[in-house]
Amino acid sequence: MKGTAHALALLLSLLGTSRYAIGQESNLPDYLSDRGTGIPMSSFGTYVTEHQLLVYPFFEYYLDNDIEYKPSEFGYGVDQDYRGKYRASEGLLFFGYGLTSDLAVEFEAAVITARLEKSPNDTSGQPMVLEESGLGDVEGQIRWRILRETITAPEVFTFFETVFPLQKDKDLIGTSDWEFKLGVGVIRGFSWGTMTLRIAAEYAREEKKVDTGEFALEYLRRLSPEWRLYTGLEVNQLDEATLITEIQWHFFRQGFLKANIGWGLTTNATDFAPEIGVMFAL
Prior knowledge:
This protein is mainly β. The chain is 5% helix and 57% strand. The strands form two sheets. It has a twelve-stranded antiparallel barrel.
């Protein structure tokens, strides 16, 4: 009985919420109350502190009824744009680590199953349905906090991302050549929430050109010790605008549930992309 009581007490301590919510340090200034003192990571509304390891297994689904493609991209000759139907299921594993109080690294890898149904107007020799599965994007980032937020000035950070060319023989999934991204962001905390603005440029070696990679405006609000709300507008290459809404539930000391949905606002954005997983902080 004593052993059972001890195990139950340990479980209850691990499942504690209010004073154990990740990133909720005590005696913080108001402008850090939503996010704590950690370095911002690429995973929405997530921050890592010095010597902290983040592990995030998660699942994402993609539904797009008007994805743009060219049959020539798949080896079927016709160099003309069509709109097809795309579905994909992806399992991902994210790692983040705080090297110092201002420098962090992260790594993410995916396995994916994708399906493209071609347009009824497509008269090329492309099959009616293309399906592929296997290794998806594999990428790493370095993230550096240049300036910390103060009462009078925002936080400034930068990041560099590399996507590795590990799928040279796939058309629907993975990345066939090196891709790089360099970005910068600013964060400012207010009494009504925390705003983040970030921009980035990217270079794809296969296309040999630099593009406007992304622009994002994000909002984070701690609703209670257990709950945080995130919403963001993300624009990629100027023509893919997505609204992301996420809820986070800090239900135990070393982890929290993340559940979000991406809503495509423009034709070239994915129509619907839900994501769910549990972030562990060790």
